[in-house]
TrEMBL record:
UniProt GO MF annotations: thiocyanate hydrolase activity
Family affiliation: Belongs to the nitrile hydratase subunit alpha family.
Major enzyme class: hydrolase
Keywords assigned by UniProt, alphabetized: Hydrolase, Metal-binding
A family per Pfam: NHase_alpha
Highest taxon listed in the record's lineage: Bacteria
EC id: 3.5.5.8
Nitrile hydratase alpha/Thiocyanate hydrolase gamma domain: residues covered: 21-211
Name under which the protein is recorded: Thiocyanate hydrolase gamma subunit
InterPro entries (UniProt xref): CN_Hdrase_a/SCN_Hdrase_g_sf, CN_Hdrtase_a/SCN_Hdrlase_g, CN_Hdrtase_asu/SCN_Hdrlase_gsu, Thiocyan_Hydrolase_gsu
């Protein structure tokens, strides 16, 4: 078919006016993988739909159960993949050979009275999606990624988290081979609570490390943040 014979009116138009270089690369790589038989279009759709429906609920239950059960907590810290299976999360689903994170190693970081953990991916947006779902938009921004490793206390304060000076902040940098999740300390005032009650106050932000669980705070509302003290801007801005 020549250029003049092409039916332009029947050509499928993109859903947006512009697409980024990364989107073009993803489309090209996906189509090449399908053409080479690495996976089918149906398998790709299944994986995408699987990834989109994951949220942080299983991770909240994992922490709540660990707070109540010392034996389970030991499993979480020693073999988190096995601990995930006990709450219904199999990192090899749905493909049997990989996950939305394509993990190699997963570790749960336990907070203590003197150490507070927070996770970041300084280079891109590596995140434990099989257990936490898709990462929030702010997690992928340059301001969070670049600044957290340099000024962690200032960044946390912008999320409203002010830590005492005697509490050290340990930043764990996720990467292609490692994924992390935070196990915050159980807050006071939750004595006698059930697993369901505890799970409700363990929000996604607590599991990333930019918030602490508090009785009464039971949803991932938009955090009231302060403007960045040392904002990262593009060259020339």
């Amino acid at each position: 078919m020549s250029h003049h014979d092409h039916d332009h009116e029947r050509t499928v138009k993109p859903m947006v006016e512009e697409i980024t270089d990364f989107e073009v690369l993803e489309i090209a790589l996906r189509e090449l993988c399908i053409e080479k038989g690495l996976f089918t279009a149906a398998e790709h759709r299944r994986l995408t739909e699987y990834a989109e429906q994951i949220d942080a609920t299983p991770a909240s239950r994992l922490v709540a159960r660990a707070w109540l059960n010392p034996e389970y907590k030991a499993l979480v810290l020693s073999d988190p993949i096995a601990a995930c299976k006990e709450i219904g999360v199999d990192w090899l689903e749905p493909t049997g050979f990989g996950t939305p994170s394509d993990f190699v190693a997963f570790k749960v970081l336990e907070d203590t009275p003197t150490v507070h953990h927070v996770i970041v991916c300084a280079l891109c947006s590596c995140y434990p999606r099989p257990i936490l779902g898709n990462s929030p938009e702010w997690y992928r921004t340059p301001n969070y990624r670049r600044r957290l490793v340099r000024w962690p206390r200032q960044v946390l304060s912008e999320f409203g988290l002010e830590l005492p000076e005697n509490v050290g902040v340990r930043v764990e940098d996720s990467n292609q081979k490692h994924r992390y999740m935070v196990m915050p300390m159980r807050p006071a005032g939750t004595e006698g609570w059930t697993e369901d009650q505890l799970a409700e106050i363990i929000t996604r932000d607590c599991l990333i490390g930019v918030a602490l669980p508090k009785p009464g705070v039971t949803s991932n509302v938009i955090t009231a943040t302060r403007p960045a003290i040392r904002a990262v801007t593009s060259p020339g801005v």
